[in-house]
Amino acid sequence: MSILINQGTTVLVQGITGREGEERARLMKEYGTRVVAGITPGKGGGSVYGIPVFNTIREAMGSVGPIQASVLFVPAPMAKRALSEAIEAGIELVIVPTDRMPVHDVLEVLALAKKKGTRIIGPNTLGVISPEECLVGMIGGSLESARRFFRKGSVGVMSRSGGMTTTISYLLTQKGIAQSTVVSIGGDAIVGSTFSDLLPLFEEDEETKCVALFGEIGTTQEERVADLMVNRKFTKPLVAFIAGVSAKEGVRFSHSGAIVSGRRGTARAKRERLGRAGAIVIDQVTEFPEVISRILKRD
Amino acid sequence: MAKLYEYQSKSILAKEKILTPKGILVRKPEEARYAESEFPQGAVLKAQVLSTGRGKEGGVRIALNPDEAYPMAKDLFGRVIKGNKVEEILLEERLDIASEYFIGITLSDETKGPVLLLSLEGGVEIEELAEKEPWKIKEIEIDYLNGPDEKEIERTLLEWKVSPDIVRKWLDLSKKLCHVFRTYEMTTLEINPLILTQKGDFIAGDCKATVDDYALFRHPELNMIDIPRDLGHPPTFLERAAWEVEKEDYRGTFYFAELAEVGEGHGYVGFHGGGGGGTMACLDQLTRNGLKPACYCDTSGNPPASKIYRAIKIILSIPNIEGHLWISDGVASQDLTHGARGLVKALTEMRPKIPIIIRLVGNNDEKAKEIVLKGTEGLGLRLEYYTEEKTTEFCIRRIKEMICPS
Question: A104 catalytic, yes or no?
Fold first, then answer.
């Protein structure tokens, strides 16, 4: 099993005729994802790698049937409109790799998503992969690396850093530890699905035995993971790494979410809270495989 | 995010019909001589710096008589307040203060929306208050589509024994602030203190605001913002140069911040990583090994050779660095040959004498290695190049060894 996406998930690509959209649509399709349609307003009627292109989502649904997930390859200034269309059309899961999306656009769309019950991953995510079943987004980069980096198994992976999502999974795979679902949640200060939104899904998923988490300074996400564990809403083993122990206050480290303001959001506080809640907090990313393999053997 | 200076935030408030004290911004002591004559009741002099807590550092002075303002301004100019040199002073009228309150809007990653903050204790550091007496601050979730729940604001204030006519003023101000927050796409907006005058008016005593740098493209009215980056200090020459490279070029990301005033002591290295989280994790590793990163530099996405060439030149221009380290792995979308070409060009031009260690793992890494090794042949560099066969930890220890041979 897996969370969010599996081999049955039907996927739509918004912005499919753009440079990124086209390339990633091909990656997803070749990996085995059921990409059933693409959208580019004004380019309906064509096709990309055998995927039919439509002008609107309603049109696509009328033609290819129900669509469960959508992924956006749309530049930031247009992302709000595209996302709103997906939400209004009733798509349950929307994955948003778009980078530098204005936060007020995100807020507006999330308010709408909350009303309609849509789950959003991102913005600024590499995507989600349930290895050997379904890949949505650009995670893995190329077909060859996606197959090499990720293997189907029992460890859930979540990360605020796109690059580290892949790195951690690859470290695990190299040691023969495979993954149930890998989620790049996005590095922005406000994201559609936080760690604590997704952990209950891993809790429910029978296949997932343990979760690896890459957190960083800024926001309250890791603190809320600790709360979740204290309240027994997440009871599986959690191994966490928090980046930014050496970060100076007031300096932003690339991601819009990665900033310590005043006394809030320090790596030290996050490590302490998670540790007290029962998580295993490691000092180096390279420790993930060893610690997790010990956990898996124990159970 | 981009922080606004007090006078900039206040100019926005004034435009949106929120009362602010009468004020004049001066950039030279002589200008204060003219300005002081505009305040017959005396003036408050406020150093315009982006750090909090300037009051405790002597950044706010009160001139009881108009002729005191000029000498005070003269003294204040050029002082350094929490690392920020005072280059602008806001002179403001003195107000007849009846009470000082607090009102603000911030973003919550938990509710994924804005939150309105109210307190009857203004003029104090709100973070400190939140820690010591959190019950004195009321947080009210703002529905992004419909605005704040006015009933809840009212209930809170009445519980706090605020008189109904003042409650009306709070409600009015809350709505106006929500409007400002949305219109200018802010991420924080704080009025502290919010002053209630003897006459019964609400006036913004001080105002701090940050706006979303991702939205600046559609806000020409915010062109007063210098460099929309959180650097924790005023931008240095190299940070300005880095911003010039980044601002018009959307191909990939180049993020650069200087972390230390390099000069004293040993062990400073130029540091370059790939991808937000990984670069920060590597920075921690460097620090743990006793090295001092002189900068944080992240190139990711898929930047062209020209961008990486400039990034490396900027890093190598930091005075007194004793080594340079570029470590990047796992950034899925990056073609490392672009970076390799950029590196060769920068090294050929600058021919640094310091030890350099490169570890690039990812798409086309073997080809990238070949480009660098061939391209730098005969330059007489102390360069070592690794790919997957050596770990990041090894590279960090190796550069340390090369800098401080034991």
Answer: no
